Amino acid sequence: MRYGISRISLVAIVAVVLVSAGVGYYIINSQQVTPVSITAGGASFPYPLITKWISEYNKLYPHIQISYQSVGSGAGISNLFSKTFDFAGSDATLTDAQLANYSVLHIPETMGGVVVSYNIPGVGSGLKLTADVIAKIFQGNITKWNDPEIISLNPSLNLPDKNIVVVRRSDSSGTTFVFTNYLKNASSFWKLGSGTSVNWPVGIGAPQNSGVASTLLQTPYSIGYLEFFYAHNNSIPYASIQNKDGQFVQPSLQTISNAAKAGAALLTNDVRTPIVNLPGKDVYPIAAFTYILIYKDLSYMDFNKAKAIVNFIWWIIHDGQNYSESLLYPKLPTEVVKIGESLLKQVTCQGKPIL
Amino acid sequence: MNYKSNSFFEKLFKSTLKIAALIVIGIFILLFYSLVERSIPSLSQNGLEILLGTSWDPNFEIFGGAPAILGTLFSSAIALVFALPISLCIAIFYTEYGPVRLRPFISGVMDLLAAIPSVIYGIWGLWTLSPILKINFQEPIIASIGFIPLFSGPAYGLSIFLASLILTIMITPIISSISIDIFSKTPMPLREGMFALGATKWEVIKNVVFPFAKRGVFAATILGLGRALGETMAVTMVIGNSYIWPFKSISLFSSASTITSKIASEFPESVVNIIHNSSLISLALVLLLISISINFVAEIISKKSAGRLNV
Known about the structure:
The complex is a heterodimer of chains A (355) and B (311). Chain A has 355 residues and is α/β, with parallel strands linked by helices.
């Protein structure tokens, strides 16, 4: 025998392994309740965190299978409307008109901050900007790095006589929405409105946060806006931004989370209220929640499944938050978790509340 | 009996072929129908703005497609202007001048280039070509003749010029490898006859190879143009995706958009706004109509030249 083991014994070993695996699987599974499979999808921003949540939750409750497809907020919403997704992730909130047709709850799952990143050779970190200056740069009213308005904010930096290359998103995105929403709120110079894509008068567009990050990295004298962790992970410097109290605040997990705390009172009326440009000493002004969207009435699915979904979301806003900071997402402050709790308690299935 | 079963299989074979042909036509009609149907919301609200409008602002429901349409036509045209002479040179070198031992190498590289996925050309353009071009080409040109609007700054690297260049690199292997095939099918007797009369190599190429290959090269060009018009991934990565060109700046170094880059960038998030979504589909319809008309014109031209040459 050349291989040491005969074919028959090989077959026998494989058969024994397969059978024992099958028996083992049966024993483990027979102790569990019926398996539940949940399909969800939407925003790509929270995708890394949601993937982490799903795998951790699966360790606790192996019979619940959850899949989340990172297809973008817009696609998430339309799939929720068509009931292809059991719940959707979205950076954008529904309009009043959409809410009139679809009774959907917005549950804040985590949050993010948008930072203004730059690549100026010879200038490291420490750039300070105000909303007015950012608005003027992104609209093409300020075109040079040594513009008096920038220099007066940064007297200690050696800003060069170079053209500013504006880099922004080419695709429609929640990041653009938060950024333009902030400028609309904070600066009277901003004329482009707010939305997931706006009609940029200058600069170059790159796809996705990763595209903007790589374009910034390889384009000297550029400026762009990014989700906090893309700037942080790629070590691209980001500016301190003047908040409503006149303080220049460096973005960090803490200062972004402060924005949620500052906005909690507003959220009790309408959870969709933007949390940009809020007052407070250490509040970073460009922050936003990303939401889980779920129907208020889950009667279109069976009770077991509805319960599994609501339990999962409950776990996300409580235990799940412990995984946030290691992945560079700010933790939801307790005030916001409370709001999420009260929203989840409104979910019903076949006339009965689930929680 | 034998004859009968033969004719049965003959019929079966024939109808299978017929069905296959009908499927193609069916798919086209279905495609065309759904594009038209889903364009209607945009066309009925904004009319011909999708063709003529110069501004695109989903927040205010303004959807003008002219810069994207012109971006598609212009970048493809420039690519063709660059790629055609280069391809012809490659094909002539390969069939007439190049050493025979080198041929498998050249054609191997050509096939390899044609088979590289477009996203790889895009990454290469974005990461490698763009900075090189910006520092060594765009910046010196802008510094010296930047006062001419066509070459005005600032230099971004990513631009309609870079997109045209990437398209050139992508379609050159297609046009040249087909041209090589056609050139090498020049009838030997004609060629040998010319040489016997004392013609130089260039005269043979000019009087025998070219006239004989004209139609085939034309077809290869149209094929290359088709690829350039429809190219999405690579172009989206290198064109800069702005609406500045050609109405706010006609500079070749300005960032721009094409129909396909617009659709690729905005389609996923457009589903929540019917008019936005429908406007993107109208742009797709425009692209389809452009391709159809180019094929149609090409057909007419090649028929005419066939009549004249009597080939």
